[in-house]
Each structure stands twice: as C-alpha cells, then as structure tokens.
Amino acid sequence: MNLTERERDILLKIIELYLKEGIPVGSRTLQKTYSLPFSPATIRNVMADLEDKGYLYQPHISAGRVPTDEGLKVYINSLFLALGEEDETLVNRLIDYLKVEKVNDRDEILAKVLDFIQSRTGYIGFGVNLTEELTVESISLLKVSSEKVLIVVNFKPDYVLHKVVTVSVSKNELSKISKLLTQKFRGKTLKQVKKELVEEIESLRREISDLTFRISSYILKSLNEVDHLEIHGTSNVVNMVSGDVGRLKQVLELLEEKTLFLEILKGFLSEKKRIGVILGSELEPEPLPSISFVLGKFSVGFKNSGVIGVIGPKRMNYSEVIPLVENVTRALSLILRK
After folding, report:
1. Best exposed site among 80, 190, 204, 238 by fewest CB in 10 Å?
2. Cβ distance 174 to 141 under 8 Å?
C-alpha cells in the first residue's frame, strides 16, 4: 500500500521512538521529540490514516500508537537502503580480535565471531557453515590402530572433514575402498554425495562388500554433521522475553530443534539478498511474535557458504544490529579467504 512522503516520515519516526522507549507513541510526544512542523492534530490524522492502512494500531483507546509487523517492515526496509557503507573500524577490530585469539580453524573462527556478536548486542548470536555446495576432491581412509580408521574427505575449496571410526580392515582393503569412493564422488557436491549415498547405500552393500557399506554409512553420518549450527549467548534469552514463561519456552524449543532452525537459515541462503530480517510472526508452523532474526551471508571462495546472525526481541535496535551483522559478515568473508 502506497504511503505519502508525510505518512512515511511520521511512520518511521513513530517506530524509531517506539523501539527506543517501548511504549505507545502519542502525537504530542512525537511532535516535541522531533520538532515536527505539524500540529499534534495533523499528526493524529496521519496516525489514523496509517492505522487504516495497517501500519499502526492503538492498544487502548486513550493510548498512542505502536507499529504492526507491516509497519515494522517498512522501517526495516528503509534501513536496508542505507547498507553498503563499510565500518572499517569494526571490521579491523574483529580481524585483530581473531588474531589475538590465535584461531585458524573455520569452526573456531565462527565460534569466536559469534562470541563477538552476542557480546556487542546482548542478544543471541548464531551461525552455520552451510557447505553443501563444496565439491569432493578425495576420500582417504587411513588405519590409525588395529580397529580404528580415520576417514578424511577433502573438499574444494579448502575444507576438510575427518572422523575416526571403529572398523577392522587391512591397509590394502582401505586403499581399494578409498580409490573406489574417490572415483565415484570426485567433483560432486556434498549435497549430491549425501543424496547418492542415501539412494545407493543398499546397492553398494550388495555390489561390493559389507565393509564398504559400513564405511559409506560412516561417511554419510559424518556428512550429515557438517552443517553444524553454533548458538552463543542463550542466557540472554531471559532478557528477550520479558519474563514471559510461555514465550521463553517457545524460544528455547526453537534453539533446541536445530533441524527447523537450519531450514530457516537455508531458506534465507537461497534468497538473493545478503542481509535480511525475519520477524518471528513469519515463522512456520509455529510463529514466535516476540522475537526477530537479523541474518547475513558470508562466503569462502564460492557463493554464500554460510549464515550468521542475531536473535533478539522484536523491539530491538535494528539501526545498530543490521549494520553490525553486515560488517561482521564482510569481515568474516575476508578472514576465511586468507
């Protein structure tokens, strides 16, 4: 629904004040706070029009207005228009922070970045390396003891998956199976490999050997663990739901049910935008109207390899959190390319 320039200006100011104060915004308060060149009566008329259009609502007859989710989206979209300005100080501070911590492993870097995010915002930081578009370079099976085998899957670009499993097998057999699996899966994406292993694992058992079947099963299990979701600052959830036990339970269940969480992140990864906001009311099958997600994509030598972000109250300071997430994703992409 189209907004006039005056309606848009007043709507954005109402939301800005509401996010800051947390109480319904009245016409006189708005006029005084921003020294608007309109009378309170004129502002009330605009507020009424915005309410009719679905951008504001009045919780009580004598109260001011608060934004609906549709109104909040207008405000958030206005912030997206200002994205793109690099905060070099923040980017350099994060890079220096990681150097001091002396972390090099991708998962360790992600964990430290999430600590940085949650400490800066006071909310929950989350992130995941969504590596399903990596391609397999080789699969190696190395005997480390009489009944222990190290599975090493090398991906392009620059990602290694390794796991020790219990299996009794000779070095010669391991070498043969390594070659067979490398030939079968080289050049295929992690996503394709998982799909083929699921579809063909029974035929592999019939065609080759029980041993190959078992090792393939171990590899499939390991691949399914690659998209590891990191969540930091869960203790902050108590401050996000204002003591509402029911909402607290809902948010904790979302954090616990990581499969649903990963689906949300993968859905965002498939979209064209680099930075996004998902309101809790938009979640399916069970909305969480008291919270919001601010998400950003980072990359490592290939397009959109992961997502980081913040879970906070719906009434969060988006004007600070959105640029923070944008600049952290920029810094993370730079760090992981080195």
Report:
1. 238
2. yes
Tokens of 288: 């969480």
CB atoms within 10 A of CB 22: 11
Residue-wise pLDDT tens digits, 277-300:
999 898 887 788 888 999 998 876
- Locate 295 and state its tokens: 């998400």
Which CATH number does 135-224 carry?
3.30.390.60
CATH code assigned to 5-79 = 1.10.10.10
Number of continuous H segments (helices) and E segments (strands) in the chain: 13, 10
Distance CA 65, CA 176 (A): 71
* Beta strand extents in the chain (DSSP E only): 56-57, 66-67, 124-129, 135-145, 148-156, 159-166, 229-232, 275-279, 291-298, 306-313
Residue closest to 321 by CA, chosen among 18, 83, 74: 83
**DSSP secondary structure string for all residues of 115-174:** HHHHHHHSSEEEEEE--TT-EEEEEEEEEEETTEEEEEEEEETTEEEEEEEE----HHHH
198 CB neighbour count, 10 Å cutoff:
11
Which amino acid does the sequence have at 91? V
Q: How far apart are CA 26 and CA 31, in angstroms?
A: 9
Superfamily of domain 88-130+227-337: GAF domain (3.30.450.40)
Q: What is the pLDDT of residue 42?
A: 94
pLDDT tens digit sequence for 247-264: 788 888 878 777 777 788
**Residue spans per domain, the chain:** 5-79, 88-130+227-337, 135-224
103-159 pLDDT tens trace: 766 677 888 889 999 999 999 999 887 666 678 888 888 888 888 888 888 877 667
Element (H, E) at 327: helix 318-337
Q: Distance between terminal CA atoms of the chain? A: 46
> What is the rounded CA–CA span in Å between residue 194 and residue 244?
41
Q: What angle do CA 123, 26, 6 make, to 5 degrees?
A: 90
Q: Is the pTM of this model over 0.90?
A: no
pLDDT for the residue 322: 94
